[in-house]
TrEMBL record, chain A:
Matching PANTHER family: D,D-DIPEPTIDE TRANSPORT ATP-BINDING PROTEIN DDPF-RELATED, TRANSPORT ATP-BINDING PROTEIN
Keywords for the protein's UniProt record, in alphabetical order: ATP-binding, Nucleotide-binding, Transport
Official protein name in the record: Peptide/nickel transport system ATP-binding protein
Single GO molecular function: ATP binding
Family matches, as Pfam families: ABC_tran (PF00005)
Keyword Transmembrane on entry: no
Keyword ATP-binding in annotation: yes
Residue span(s) of domain ABC transporter: 14-258
One Gene Ontology term from the biological process aspect of the record: transmembrane transport
Family according to the record: Belongs to the ABC transporter superfamily.
Signal peptide: none
UniProt superkingdom: Bacteria
UniProtKB/TrEMBL annotation, chain B:
Top-level EC class: translocase
Official protein name in the record: Nickel import system ATP-binding protein NikD
Protein topology in the membrane: Peripheral membrane protein
UniProt-annotated location(s): Cell membrane
Residues in ABC transporter domain copies: 3-252
PROSITE patterns recorded: ABC_TRANSPORTER_1, ABC_TRANSPORTER_2
Lineage: Bacteria, Bacillati, Bacillota, Negativicutes, Acidaminococcales
Catalytic activity, reaction form: Ni(2+)(out) + ATP + H2O = Ni(2+)(in) + ADP + phosphate + H(+)
Listed PANTHER family: NICKEL ABC TRANSPORTER, ATP-BINDING PROTEIN, OLIGOPEPTIDE TRANSPORT ATP-BINDING PROTEIN APPD
Zinc is among the record's keywords: no
Primary location recorded for the protein, binned into one broad class: membrane
Gene Ontology biological-process entries: peptide transport
C-alpha cells in the first residue's frame, strides 16, 4: 500500500509520468502542435478513473499513448512496474492481454466480413489462449445480456448497443486488469448507455477490473467514477475524487465546466 | 404555419425485403413551439426529420401527408420544395463538420443559400455572414468565417451550422441531435442559441435528440418514438412529471442523473404478434392483451399508445 495525500490507497496499476506528445503540421512551413503537456497521474488498482475535457483537449490521444497505439515524445508509462514504452513488439502484445481498449464507434471496430462468432474468437486466437477459452463465449454473451443467435450474424445486422456489447465481450474474454474506454457510449442513447454501464458494474462485482473512462459527459462520469481528471489543451488541470471535484474545483476551467453542467 | 403529419409511413427496400421505418405517424406541430422527438437509435427519429424536409433517399417508399398549412409537401416537385427548404423549413444535419464542404470557408458556407437565391448583392454577403455568426455567440466571427470546417471545435462547428441553417429566418428548424458529442460548455452554448431562436424569434422547432435534459429544458411538447411509431405525446412538463408509456418511463429512468436503470432487451427484439405492441418483448408490464393492436389513448392532452394507461387512469378517455 502507498500513502497518497494522507490517505491509504491501493497500489497504482498504471503510472503515467511526464508524458508529452506533439505533432508536426504543414507541408512547407512546419509547425509543432502540442497535444499532451507533461501529463502525470496514477490509476489505482480497482478504481474507475474518469478523464474529461473539451474535444481536442488530448483525452483520446492520452489513452492511445497508454495503449502504445500512438508514440509519445517523452515520459514513462508504467504498468505493474514495467515501462510500456520500453517493451519490444512481442512483449507489448503480452502486455495488451491485460490492458484493453474499447473504442467510440463499435461499427468501425469490427471486421464487417466476419461473423460475430469469428470476431469474438479473434482475440483468443491472436493471444494464443487455450482453445477452451472459446467455450466461454456463450457465457460472455449471457453476461452481456445478448442472445446466442447473434453469433452467426454480421456486424451490420446488429444495433449500436449490441455491437458495443460484442466489442466489450471481445475484451473480457482476455480477462484484462485494466480497461481503457474511449467515449464508449457517446454514440448510444441513454437506455443502451445504462445497459452497458450496468453490465460493467456486474463485471466489476465478479472481478476487480480497473477502468480509465474517457468521456465529455459529466453526468455519466459523475455516476460511475471514483475520481475525475479534467484536461484542457493538452494539460491535466486537476484530478480529484468526484464529490471533491464537483464541490471544490480548484481550476477556473473546471469551475466553468461544472457551472455549465449545473446551469444546463 | 402549423405542420400536420398524417399517417406518414416510410419504408426502404433492402435485399428484396420491405423495411418499415415509420408506421402511420400522425403528429401536429404548432407554429412557434418546440417539439422534441426522443427515442432509441433506430426508432425512426432522424428519418422523420429528413422526411419533413423532403430529404429522404429517392428509393424510400413514402405514403401519407405532410401538410404545411394547406400544402402537402409530399406532392411538391423539387423546384417547389427548394423554395420551401431553407426559407420556411430548414434542416440541421447531425454531424456539423461532415455537413459542410471541407474545402469551403465557413463564412461562405453560411451565406451560400443567399448567393444561390441571389437574395443580396455578392459584396454584401461577407458582412451578412459575419453578422450571422456573431449572432450565435462567435465573437471572433471574422476569423471563424475565414476558417475551414476542419479547424473548428465541435461546439463552434455546431454554431456555424445553426448560423447557416437560419440565415434565411425560416419559420421551422429541424435540428437533428444538435448537442451530440459536445462537452458541457458546448452543449450549454448550443442550448442558449436554440433558446434564442425559439423564445426571441418564435422559430418553430423539431428537436430530434437523445439528450433528455435538452428536451426538458427547450421543448414545449415531447413525442416519444419506438420502432417507427409514436408511443407517447404530451406537454413537456406533464411528460417528465408522469411519463405514461412503459418505454418512456424506462427512458427517463435510464438517465445518468436518475437511477441509470437500463431497459431490458434491445430495440431489435420483435414482438410475437406483428400487429401487437412493438415494445411488448421488453415491457415489464407485458400480458396477453399486448399482442393486440394498441390504440393511442388520450387524457388531458396526454396521448399514450398503451392499454394499461387506460387501466391506470380510469376510463375517462377519448
Amino acid at each position: 500500500m502507498s500513502v497518497v495525500g494522507g490517505m491509504f490507497r491501493k497500489m497504482a496499476i498504471l503510472s503515467v509520468k511526464h508524458v508529452c506528445k506533439s505533432y508536426k503540421t504543414g507541408l512547407i512551413k512546419k509547425k509543432t502542435k502540442i497535444i499532451l503537456q507533461d501529463i502525470t497521474f496514477d490509476v489505482q488498482e480497482g478504481e474507475v478513473l474518469g478523464l474529461t475535457g473539451a474535444s481536442g483537449s488530448g483525452k483520446s490521444t492520452l489513452i492511445r499513448c497508454i495503449m502504445r497505439l500512438t508514440p509519445v515524445d517523452s515520459g514513462t508509462i508504467i504498468m505493474d512496474g514495467t515501462d510500456l514504452l520500453q517493451l519490444s513488439p512481442t512483449d507489448l502484445r503480452q502486455s495488451r492481454k491485460v490492458m484493453q481498449m474499447l473504442f467510440q464507434n463499435p461499427a468501425s471496430a469490427l471486421n464487417p466480413r466476419k461473423t460475430i462468432r469469428e470476431s469474438l474468437a479473434e482475440p483468443i486466437l491472436i493471444h494464443q489462449l487455450p482453445e477452451a477459452t472459446l467455450k466461454e463465449i456463450p457465457g460472455i454473451l449471457d453476461m452481456l445480456q445478448l442472445k446466442k443467435d447473434l453469433l452467426d450474424r454480421y456486424p451490420h445486422q446488429l444495433s449500436g448497443g449490441e455491437l458495443q456489447r460484442i466489442c466489450l465481450g471481445r475484451l473480457l474474454l482476455l480477462r484484462p486488469r485494466l480497461l481503457l474506454l474511449d467515449e464508449p457510449t457517446s454514440m448510444l442513447d441513454v437506455s443502451v448507455q445504462a445497459q452497458i454501464i450496468e453490465i460493467m458494474r456486474n463485471i466489476r462485482k465478479e472481478y476487480p477490473i480497473t477502468v480509465l473512462f474517457v468521456s465529455h459527459d459529466l453526468a455519466l462520469l459523475k455516476a460511475v467514477c471514483d475520481r475525475i481528471g479534467v484536461m484542457e489543451q493538452g494539460k491535466l488541470l486537476e484530478l480529484q475524487p468526484v464529490e471533491e471535484l464537483f464541490q471544490h474545483p480548484s481550476e477556473q476551467y473546471t469551475r466553468d465546466l461544472i457551472r455549465a453542467f449545473n446551469d444546463f | 404555419m402549423d405542420i400536420r403529419i398524417r399517417d406518414l409511413s416510410v419504408s426502404f427496400v433492402t435485399n428484396g425485403k420491405n423495411l418499415a421505418v415509420l408506421k402511420n405517424i400522425s403528429l401536429g406541430l404548432v407554429q412557434g413551439t418546440v417539439t422534441a422527438i426522443i427515442g432509441e437509435s433506430g426508432s425512426g427519429k432522424s428519418v422523420l426529420g429528413a422526411a419533413l424536409a423532403r430529404l429522404l433517399d429517392p428509393q424510400a417508399v413514402i405514403s401519407g401527408r405532410i401538410l404545411y398549412g394547406d400544402t402537402d409537401l409530399l406532392l411538391l416537385d423539387e423546384p417547389e420544395m427548394s423554395e420551401i427548404r431553407g426559407k420556411s423549413i430548414s434542416w440541421m444535419a447531425q454531424n456539423p463538420v461532415s455537413a459542410m464542404d471541407p474545402l469551403q470557408k465557413t463564412g461562405d458556407f453560411v451565406t451560400e443559400i443567399l448567393d444561390f437565391r441571389k437574395a443580396f448583392p455578392s459584396e454584401r454577403l461577407q458582412e451578412i455572414g459575419i453578422k450571422q455568426l456573431r449572432r450565435f455567440g462567435l465573437q471572433n466571427a471574422e476569423t471563424v468565417g475565414q476558417s475551414y470546417p476542419g479547424a473548428l471545435s465541435g461546439g463552434m462547428a455546431q454554431r456555424v451550422l445553426i448560423s447557416a441553417m437560419t440565415v434565411e429566418e425560416p419559420e421551422w428548424l429541424i435540428a437533428d441531435e444538435p448537442t451530440k458529442g459536445l462537452d458541457a460548455m458546448g452543449r450549454r452554448q448550443v442550448y442558449l442559441n436554440l433558446c434564442q431562436l425559439a423564445r426571441e424569434r418564435r422559430m418553430g422547432m423539431v428537436l430530434i435528440t437523445h439528450d433528455l435534459r435538452l428536451a426538458e429544458r427547450l421543448s414545449n411538447y415531447i413525442a416519444v418514438m419506438y420502432a417507427g411509431e409514436i408511443v407517447e405525446y404530451a406537454g413537456t412538463g406533464e411528460f417528465f412529471a408522469s411519463p405514461g408509456h412503459p418505454y418512456s418511463r424506462g427512458l427517463v429512468a435510464a438517465q445518468p442523473d436518475k437511477d441509470m436503470k437500463p431497459i431490458p432487451g434491445d430495440i431489435t427484439d420483435l414482438p410475437a404478434s406483428a400487429s401487437g405492441c412493438s415494445f411488448a418483448p421488453r415491457c415489464p408490464s407485458f400480458c396477453d392483451r399486448c399482442s393486440e393492436k394498441q390504440k393511442m389513448v388520450e387524457k388531458d392532452s396526454h396521448f399514450v399508445r398503451c392499454w394499461r394507461y387506460v387501466q391506470e387512469n380510469g376510463d375517462t378517455f377519448r
